[in-house]
Amino acid sequence: MSKGLENQRFKLDQLFREGKPGPLRLFKRNKAIQSQHKTLRMLLTEAKNTIFGKEYNFTEILNLDELEVAYQAVPISSYLAMKPYWQRAYEGEENVCWPGQISYFALSSGTTDASSKYIPVTDKMLKNIKKASVRQLFHVAKTDLPKDYLTKNYLFVGGSTDLEFNGNNFSGDLSGITTSNIPVWMRRFSKPEPHIRNQKEWDHKINMMVEQAPNWDVAMIAGVPAWIQMLFERIIKTYDLNTIHDMWPHLCVYVHGGVSFKPYQQSFEKYLAKPLKYFETYLASEGFIAFQVREQDKGMRLVFRNGVYYEFIPFNEMNFDSNGDVRTGASIINVSQIKPDVDYAIVITTCSGAWRYILGDTIRFINTDKFEMVITGRTKHFLSLCGEHLSVENMNAAIVALSEELGHEITEFTVKGTIQNGHFGHQWYLACDEALDVDFVKTRLDKLLKEANDDYRVERKFALRNIELTVLPKSAFIDWMEQRGKLGAQNKFPRVMNDQLYASWLAHVKQNSALHVDA
Asked: What span, in angstroms and rounded, lies between the C-alpha atoms of 256 and 246?
């Protein structure tokens, strides 16, 4: 290693360990509330002369008392509501939802339907994402890590940095956009190298990383669990290793996000020789929402002063219909009104031109003083055919418990609500490479779900009659994602299928009936 690089890393190590990044401090409750007020005023002020700002009278809102209340005159929006504006910006029109021309569009994978979504990412948002990323790295480095942690490599397994250019702006996975704009001071430490990051074909990209793996000294790795696990598997198999630590002995931190890590943890840890420190992050295509501050924390803390204004809708039948759509007149609150142990749909306004945009995730605050929260599911990823109100959180908990009980890895799962002959039912699909007694597994899964959710337990006695289960090898899930062009760093398997996705999935399963591993 060159003397210059050693000196640079030494300075970074001192910066992190002495806690000098100044603005990276955490916000206390009152200051966070004040910060949100300032953020909303800043967003409205900057966008008041845009097409959207004029249409919804931002100048008038800014002149009214109780800004947060006045702002509620702007309607709650979804992607479909914002799409006509964002499409104009994508085609190069300036000052549509945010001043100037949009530099980037994040291509969102979209698990609720088959279509892709183009989410604007302004230069200001990109700057804020970088700032939040540094905040999390700061808190990771402040833990009891080895002293030479910052002299090692950081591996970011993300989308391609070879972005599409339409003559007006660039588009691609958000991870590809952010890694193509990583801070200068980090470029010399981060892996993989630019020519590998640039690769669009996912399988080829993984193979290139496997080839280069012996040349890296990785201390931290970041990415979606399923794809990190795939990388570990190939490295271990290629080099005939026992664990990934035979290749990277200094690996000690894993930063994960996108999906719940719990269903993956058991299978993930079999590739390790020693424990890792796990840190969760909540980085959506629309903005950096939250991150885990300390290893022992049970949740993530909202990111403030980062170009995002937050609102919350209690996720209940009064505010949402059976399809997960917001009802007219839904109750909406801001950060000053949140309560613990209530599921909320999160609504954001951002410096990328998203206005009162329902993100699609549901969260629950476990500490309102620290704004510490957990992701509980998706507004459209739950099952309530007959009042069972089964959330993704319930499903994750049951699958983790089932996997531990069976002693076998269940790496993926999905479920579809069905109606047959007037009877409601759930059709489950589990990914496991071991032969299982399907009837026994179905009975145990059903029992675990009853224990996790009282509404489910009650409805199983009456309306919810049919519970079916199919076990498929892990490859069946990966192959379907590849067929849909969803194989890659930011894509994740849908936990609850809608009709359109289920038709594609069912055709895939029927065409590959030999894949079944039912005992």
From this structure: 22
Q: Give the single-character DSSP code of 150.
A: G
| pLDDT at 492 (0 to 100) | 77
Cα 97 to Cα 325: distance, rounded to the nearest angstrom: 23
Burial, 373: exposed, middle or buried (Cβ in 10 Å; 0-12, 13-18, 19+)?
buried
Q: Tokens in use for 325?
A: 């759509």
CA atoms within 13 A on the CB side of 497: 18
Residue whose pair of structure tokens reads 């993930």 in the numeric block: 268
Strands of the 464-472 sheet, one edge to the other? 412-420, 423-431, 464-472
Strand, coil or helix: 360: strand
Average pLDDT, the chain: 87
With a threshold of 0.85, does the pTM exceed it? no
Which tokens sit at 163?
């972005």
Q: What is the C-alpha to C-alpha distance for residues 327 and 268, in angstroms, rounded to an integer? A: 40
Helices and strands per DSSP (H, E), number in the chain: 18, 21
C-alpha count within 13 angstroms, C-beta hemisphere, residue 324 = 24
Classify residue 213 by its DSSP letter.
Answer: G
**Alpha helices (H) along 225-347:** 225-238, 262-269
In this predicted structure, the answer to whether residue 327 has a pLDDT above a threshold of 70 is yes
147 pLDDT higher than 50: yes
Q: What angle do CA 478, 208, 508 make, to 5 degrees?
A: 15
Q: What is the pLDDT of residues 92-127, one digit of tens each?
A: 999 999 999 999 999 875 544 445 789 999 999 999
CB contact set of 37 (below 8 Å; sequence gap of 6+)? 67, 68
What is the phi/psi pair of residue 115, to 5°?
A: -85, 155
Under 8 Å between Cβ of 172 and 106: yes
pLDDT at 60: 97
Reduce the secondary structure of 398-437 to three states and give it as a string: HHHHHHHHHCCCCCEEEEEEEEECCEEEEEEEEECCCCEC
Q: Is the distance from CB of 113 to CB of 498 less than 8 angstroms?
A: yes
- Distance (Å, whole) CA 141 – CA 132: 14
Any idea what the Cα angle at residue 142 is, between residues 138 and 148, rounded to 5°?
95
Has residue 18 got a pLDDT over 70? no
| Residue 339 CA, distance from chain mean position | 23
Alpha-carbon distance 390 to 456, whole Å? 7
13 vs 18, 94, 214, 391, CA distance in Å?
8, 42, 25, 42
Q: CB-based burial of residue 333 (10 Å sphere; 0-12 exposed, 13-18 middle, 19+ buried)?
A: middle
In a 10 Å sphere around its CB, with 0-12 CB exposed, 13-18 middle and 19+ buried, how is residue 129 labelled?
buried
Tell me the C-alpha distance between 133 and 32, whole Å. 19
Length of the chain equals: 519
